[in-house]
Amino acid sequence: MKTRNRDPGWATRYKEWMVEAGFRNVVELRFMWPQNSWPKDKKMKELGRWNMINALDGLQGFTARLFTKVQGMPVEEMEVLLMEVRQDIQNRKIHCYWPVQDVPRSTRWLFEANTQV
Questions:
Q1: Strand (E) positions, 35-84?
Q2: Pair 29, 116: CB distance under 8 Å
Q3: Which residue, of 20, 63, 76, 93, is most buried by count of CB atoms within 10 Å of its CB?
Q4: Residue 114 lies in a domain
């Protein structure tokens, strides 16, 4: 991705970008979501199920252009790879997490000098 001037870690910079844009009191929340239903905790298991469904439903769309157009992989080869990836996503023996960042709220700094009454 970086060879195409694309940073796959852009979500880790949400807070930084919000502050640079003039927002104040920026709150950043970080989560670790399980890949599938492997956790024992009931809530994490449910979150893992939803995360797995989302990943499986979007896998083709997440990867097709990158693998075929950017990397030059034949479509047939990509389909075989995605079949293996789908099996791994559903494998409860693989304990994997997705890092998730969210910036749910902030206060926009407006030109204070112009807003004085």
A1: none
A2: no
A3: 63
A4: no
Which tokens go with 16? Answer: 């930084």
In one letter, which amino acid is 8?
P
Domain housing 101:
2-108
First vs last Cα of the chain: how many Å apart? 50
**pLDDT tens-digit series, residues 76-96:** 999 999 999 999 999 999 999
- At position 63, the amino acid (one-letter code) is T
Token digits for 28? 């950043």
In-domain check, residue 96 = yes
Q: Do the Cβ atoms of 98 and 35 come closer than 8 Å?
A: yes
Residue 113 lies in a domain: no
Domain count within the chain: 1
Rounded to two decimals, the pTM is 0.73
